[in-house]
Design a protein that fits this description.
Length: 119
């Protein structure tokens, strides 16, 4: 089953690359970093979070967000020390992991119900 998921991902990524090439008239290899970033920051239905959120503990901050913040100067002025940051980061990761596991469990239970024979 894991091979099937990987093959679906490859098919999705190939479709994204085709659309990128047709809409921008650029070579496929130029779009790979942008498309991977987009895929990693997109929330996954089965997890309830994006892959980047589960790995890094927060939503990714892309180039447009950084540019917007530089124009609006919305960056937080209260900096926390390293120990506070690590504690907060660990807490966010544990919470996100817990929620993701719950989403996967519910999704698996739903899939299992659909596969049961009726009658």
């Amino acid at each position: 089953e894991s091979q099937g998921a990987l093959e679906r991902w490859h098919q999705t990524f190939k479709t994204m690359l085709k659309k990128y090439c047709y809409s921008t008239a650029r070579q496929w290899d130029e779009g790979v970093p942008f498309l991977l970033f987009a895929a990693r920051e997109a929330s996954q239905e089965s997890l309830g979070y994006s892959p980047a959120q589960l790995v890094f503990g927060h939503a990714p901050r892309g180039p447009l967000q950084a540019l917007k913040e530089s124009f609006l100067e919305t960056q937080s002025s209260n900096k926390m020390n390293v120990n506070e940051y690590v504690k907060c980061f660990r807490s966010r990761l544990r919470f996100a992991n817990k929620i993701a596991r719950e989403h996967l469990k519910k999704r698996a239970e739903g899939d299992e119900k659909q596969l049961r024979p009726k009658g």
